[in-house]
């Protein structure tokens, strides 16, 4: 396979989640051997270490419900700038969260870089939740429930970047896969905006290959770039307990690997988030190792080569 220049960017963010621990996520991926796993597949890996949030001065929360808004703004700004810069280079960034709020910066930055290359950005959001709350609709106030709405250009996020979002992701270019927990305001907004949603029932009924290949065909036909945002809770908590928001009935080991293997074979993926790993809740590193193994499948690990057969 093609050798990739992979860049690791640590974003030790936990202010978007309801409980502490995601701050340790980037180092857990390092401990679990992410770099050596990718290097063993023939890729070059450069680790930029962990970022620090930008100073935001006196940014104020738009309402009293949202928690840690200034921290969210600081992380969004530094990650947006980093992702926009990496997206303009011939490298593959992997953003190591941190809770899922990091995607406000990573996806918006990748979208900016894609727009500058005249390519549409598509987003595959692998998650138990749709993270499509606005700052007004969130009941918990936990900001890791809002990044997808922000990058899709939903209103009310002024102050997050300190300027309007110039390059939102077209909602129809987003596929949310693996969901099994959506709040009513999110459901209404997802439907209204035409976001693709393949919930667990649809995965049960139609299977990963049919759903994912239809989406990948759309990305390819549009000459799109594809950002993948992998939340630990996409996986069933039996195999991935290290997350603060477990929801039963997630994807199996094989379903998750199949997603990654199909993504690899497509050659369409250009950036990746690994988010919501909470090492404090893990069992002897098994969730961190599974996430690293899934990254391995995305970057070409396979049991056997599968040459196209001609008869
Ligand atoms: Mn999430």
UniProtKB/TrEMBL annotation:
EC number: 3.5.3.1
Metabolic or biological pathway, per its Swiss-Prot or TrEMBL entry: Nitrogen metabolism; urea cycle; L-ornithine and urea from L-arginine: step 1/1
Record has Secreted as a keyword: no
Keyword Metal-binding included in the entry's annotation: yes
Cofactor note: Binds 2 manganese ions per subunit.
Family to which the UniProt record says this protein belongs: Belongs to the arginase family.
Protein name: Arginase
Organism (species): Roseibium denhamense
Record lineage: Bacteria, Pseudomonadati, Pseudomonadota, Alphaproteobacteria, Hyphomicrobiales
């Amino acid at each position: 396979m093609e050798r990739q220049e992979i860049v690791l960017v640590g974003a030790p963010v936990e202010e978007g989640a309801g409980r502490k621990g995601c701050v340790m996520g980037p180092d857990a991926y390092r401990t679990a051997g992410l770099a050596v796993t990718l290097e063993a597949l023939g890729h070059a890996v450069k680790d930029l270490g962990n970022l620090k949030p930008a100073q935001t001065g006196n940014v104020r929360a738009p309402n009293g419900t949202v928690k840690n808004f200034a921290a969210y703004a600081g992380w969004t700004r530094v990650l947006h700038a980093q992702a926009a810069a990496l997206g303009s280079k011939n490298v593959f960034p992997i953003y190591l969260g941190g809770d899922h709020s990091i995607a406000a910066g990573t996806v918006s930055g990748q979208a900016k870089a894609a727009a500058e290359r005249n390519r549409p950005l598509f987003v595959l959001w692998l998650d138990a939740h749709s993270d499509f709350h606005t700052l007004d609709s969130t009941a918990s106030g936990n900001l890791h429930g809002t990044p997808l709405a922000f990058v899709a250009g939903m209103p009310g996020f002024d102050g997050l970047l300190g300027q309007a979002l110039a390059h939102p992701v077209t909602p129809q270019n987003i596929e949310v896969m693996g969901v099994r927990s959506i709040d009513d305001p999110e459901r209404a907004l997802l439907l209204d905006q035409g976001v693709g949603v393949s919930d667990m029932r649809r995965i049960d009924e139609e299977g990963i290959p049919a759903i994912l290949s239809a989406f990948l065909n759309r990305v390819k036909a549009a000459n799109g770039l594809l950002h993948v945002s992998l939340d630990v809770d996409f996986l069933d908590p039996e195999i991935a307990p290290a997350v603060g928001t477990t929801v039963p009935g997630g994807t199996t080991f094989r379903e998750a690997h199949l997603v990654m293997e199909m993504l690899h074979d497509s050659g369409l993926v250009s950036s990746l988030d690994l988010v919501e790993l909470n090492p404090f809740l893990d069992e002897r590193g098994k969730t961190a190792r599974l996430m690293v193994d899934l990254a391995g499948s995305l970057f070409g690990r396979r049991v056997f080569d599968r040459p196209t057969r001609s008869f």
